[in-house]
Amino acid sequence: MKKCPYCAEEISKSAVFCKHCESRLEEAAVDGSRWEYIIATPRMKGWVNKGVSDEVVEKINDLGSEGWELISSSPVSTSKGGTDFLTLFFKRKIN
Ligand SMILES: [Zn+2]
Description:
This protein is about 20% helix and about 35% strand. By secondary structure, it is α+β, with helices and mostly antiparallel strands. It has two domains: about 1-30; about 35-95, Alpha-Beta Plaits (2-Layer Sandwich), CATH 3.30.70. The chain has a three-stranded antiparallel beta sheet with strand order 3-5-4, covered by helices on one side. Strands 1-2 form a two-stranded antiparallel ribbon. Bound molecules: zinc ion.
């Protein structure tokens, strides 16, 4: 862990953006780390309170085994208030 130079919150040592204030961290850019990102949208079972479908868990594990780290997720709601899809954000370090 290290401190964000802009807001002084604790952040991951390898963070490129501060999750608290969203500042870009120049130190991280200087150390040569580069990242690629993808977004996956596995289908939910229906209403979000029925739980997460196997497809969601499989998707996360499949991508994890390929080096993709889940960094964020967001439900995509229908007009009726249910959750049809999860939007999953993954990142992977480029060597
Ligand atoms: Zn910050």
